[in-house]
Write a structure and sequence with these properties.
alpha/beta, about 140 residues, 2 helices, Signal recognition particle alu RNA binding heterodimer, srp9/1, 8 strands, globular
């Protein structure tokens, strides 16, 4: 039996559950400059009013922020546990300095920097990478 292919675009969506949906949407819009693609209103009688999910465009896919009631439990930065470790988005190596200035302007601390990636956290502690791999900050291709 043949295995069906994944479409050329690859990723449909990534979902992050969050307690403060409004604050998370604000962060991803203001800091990462993602735009809202679709809002899904609360539709169950036991849900509070407002959105239950907000989808933001992320390349050809979607970052789905899903409201939940649990308190966020962000892992330590270099946590060795299994599960989702990081959401990395692609930036241009030429814009690394611009991104660093933008993060500082927004009051977002840089948790760690590597040759290829700037690491930050969203308001609920999820790890975010702004990566220009395989290019270094001065444009040298390393892979």
């Amino acid at each position: 039996m043949a295995t069906p292919p994944i479409t050329p675009f690859g990723m449909h969506h990534i979902a992050i559950q969050c307690r403060d949906l409004v604050g998370m949407v604000r962060f991803y819009e203001r800091v990462l400059r993602l735009r809202v693609d679709r809002r899904w209103p609360a539709d169950a009688p036991d849900q509070p009013t407002g959105d239950r999910s907000v989808w933001l465009k992320l390349g050809t896919g979607v970052l789905a922020l899903e409201r939940c009631r649990a308190v966020p439990q962000p892992p330590d930065w270099q946590d060795e546990s299994t599960g989702l470790h990081l959401l990395a988005v692609e930036i241009s190596w030429q814009n690394r300095g611009v991104w660093l200035d933008h993060l500082e302007h927004c009051g977002i601390p840089v948790v760690f920097e590597s040759t290829w990636t700037i690491y930050i956290r969203d308001p609920e502690g999820n790890r975010i990478g702004l990566s220009h791999f395989p290019f270094t900050a001065d444009g040298v291709r390393t892979a």
